[in-house]
């Protein structure tokens, strides 16, 4: 069974994951979405309520039924003119694990949705206002911010949190890894449970989070940003690549 990786360019994280997959003798199909349609071909036929066919480039191919997981390095696979049908065929392969499905990833990138989902999942979020009304912003901030540009675009304001330190969490499948004060620590159980609800609600198999920890030890949700994986993976003893590879190969276990 093959792991499919869609990425616009190679980088250290992709190289590390591909190296680990190949060390485990797992076939890899790596393609740049910009190769479509000249160098990336999808040939799929519907039969008995299932799609069968091939995904091909000039130098590699994979049978659709032999795909075990798809890792989308970017949030979308293809240009808008083609992504609906291309993503739709791949999404209809019900045996495939997505990390993450591009529609789910695009939804999860919405800052207002992140904040609302965090609160609904049991995480602490500072009081927040999104507005292009200078009057509303002035009331919310007690006049402590420069409001000259507020009327020209939506602006987010949050109550300040007195920061003791920051924490970054990578969630890979059922595992979480937390870096705080430059050390890997155990994720607080209440935070881990809330993040599991967050990911289930948004349909994510992988996510990265930033938190602010105040002087009383309360964890405040700051943001979700999948790109944190690259930064955290450079820290000593980072356990991320092995676990991420486990996730990509989980469809066979």
UniProtKB/TrEMBL annotation:
- Highest rank taxon of the organism: Bacteria
Domain MvdD-like pre-ATP grasp spans what residues?
Answer: 11-74
Q: What is this protein called?
A: MvdD-like pre-ATP grasp domain-containing protein
UniProt source species: Herbihabitans rhizosphaerae
